[in-house]
Design goal:
The complex is a heterodimer of chains A (337) and B (325). Chain A contains 11 helices and 12 strands. With 337 residues, chain A is of the alpha/beta class. Chain B has an 8-stranded mixed β-sheet with strand order 6-7-8-3-9-10-12-11, sandwiched between helices. A 4-stranded antiparallel β-sheet of chain B has the order 2-1-4-5. Chain B has a domain of 78 residues. In chain B, helix 5 runs parallel beside helix 6. The chains are: A alpha/beta (337), B alpha/beta (325).
Amino acid sequence: MSATAPSASLLEIDGLVTSFRTPRGQVRAVDGVSLRVERGQTVCIAGESGCGKSVTALSVMGLLPDVARVDAGAIRFNGVDVLALPPRQRRGLRGRSLAMVFQEPMTALNPVQAIGRQVAEVFAIHGTAGRAEARAKVLALLRQVKIADPERRYDEYPHQMSGGMKQRVMIAMALANRPELLIADEPTTALDVTIQAQVLHLLRELQRELGTGIVFVTHDLAVVAAIADRVVVMYAGRVVEQGGVLDVLERPAHPYTVGLLAARPRPGQTRHGGDRLAVIPGTVPSPLERIAGCRYQARCPRVQERCRVDVPALARVANGAEDGHAAACHFPEGGVA
Amino acid sequence: MSVVAPLLQADALSVEFPVRRGILRREVARLRAVQRVSVEVRAGEVLGIVGESGCGKTTLGRAMVGLIEPDAGTLRVEGRDIATLSTGERRRMTRDVQMVFQDPFASLNPRKRIRRILELPFEVHGLAGGAEREARIRELVALVGLSAEHLDSWPHELSGGQRQRVGIARALALQPKVVVLDEPLSALDMSIQSQVLNLLVDLRERLNLSYVFISHDLSIVEYLCDSVAVMYLGRVVESAPAAQLFASPRHPYTQALLDAVPDPDPRRERRGRPLEGDVPGLLHAPDGCAFHTRCPLAQPRCRESAPELRVVDATGLQRAACHLL
């Protein structure tokens, strides 16, 4: 990027609205999302399926499917609104300053091309390494993401590798041009737990070395605890709570966050002695439903008349210890600041 | 064997699959999915079977309900070897041991309404006709927290959580004693998982059921199970009462597995170096102890001979298969 405003955040999303064309009309998957990511910081976007977390990530990357479009809002990368950039310049960002790792390493890699060539392509596209130089750089990258015996792996095909190894190849490709921002969409969900631990460890290590900002999309709050600096909790297309990881996980303010945390067994908790898990009743509303007021109202234990009328805005909460702990709730846990 | 035989018992059970190649589909290798596994579940008990993908836990579960014929070993239901049962007795046994599958989207026939899906078990076993059948079906949907209106729905009209409730109702139709649950929560969203988990806990108490709970989610296993068997590459590497296993795992693999579970406490120090390497494929299972390629403590003899499962604690309830214990 040429014009880097000195004070700008690495990524700033402001009032993003992304909608999908469906047979039953235009449906908003992301409805007014704002968040920011600073350099070297990991921000987790957490939520359940359909909450809009992946669509937010794809909107930033400019990789939305044909039926989807950004209707409103700004996405500023180093202060520059990427939505206003001509397509050619936007493409120039992808794979260079802005990179992405997907959930399914099995489908994200080309099955008929050797691993080494696929990683080398990232240099070729951006002209960041010549052909001879590329091989050495790819081998160094494979070594950096802890792939044993990289010379042999260079000529192997995806089907010859395990899921964890393929995800490490994806991370190598994403990091090839030392991006400033890495977007990882559920990168460990398809992996076994010991392999998940390896990949989380690797991402933390690489971030320390390279200073990359990371947007980590996940449904798993324990993974959030393991990797996040800040958390953005989404529900039905909107941000319901955000803040530092300690605030959100230890002093959750939005009833949805409170409910999600209580619905998982704590270490050492057992069913004996009639100890039941907390339950969030009902299900997520369909995005086709028109709801006045708060979208969580039908499932919320604290619901009041006002929640059925006014949409709650994201506002600072009273019990936040870190910067910018906010919840979109009229009656947050701990009260309004 | 103690005075009361276990409800369901696998004794040195092995399951192999042929690996076929070429146009003649010639058998080129045997994939040993489950090797000499012994586990049991007693009345009212919940047995957890945990392990990573490819460890054989699903195959073991299917063998325990009789969906897969074991290649060796014995399966006993209330102490009776099912291989010695007559066809009629075998049918009776399938009523006692039922299964709930992982994917509530794939395990319900999309062309049948919920009523039809729940009628089938009665029809197949020639039980409860006419008005009695309808009454039993209504009882079942109420039992799993659905309403009678859902009976006229198609599977695609239900949410994932509701579909899994139908899967549970179907498994309970014939009033089984044991239900084998294969990852019944993993396809569900977080807020729905605890709804279904609480339902399973309540049903167990109301109907005095026993469960075999197959899962990779160790927090849920710790919450739900009385005893746990940990599998790695087709074998049980450790088994113990749940509280004991989570408090003091002995096998290096169990220790690594528990250590890899992300801690929900953000203040816990973010762990250092995790277990390295990948699970080797079953076709390339290493000689000796199958875990030696990843084990931080491996010795020369671990490469040579496979350790047997043996008692490793004073109570005699914890067993591990490791040369170093």
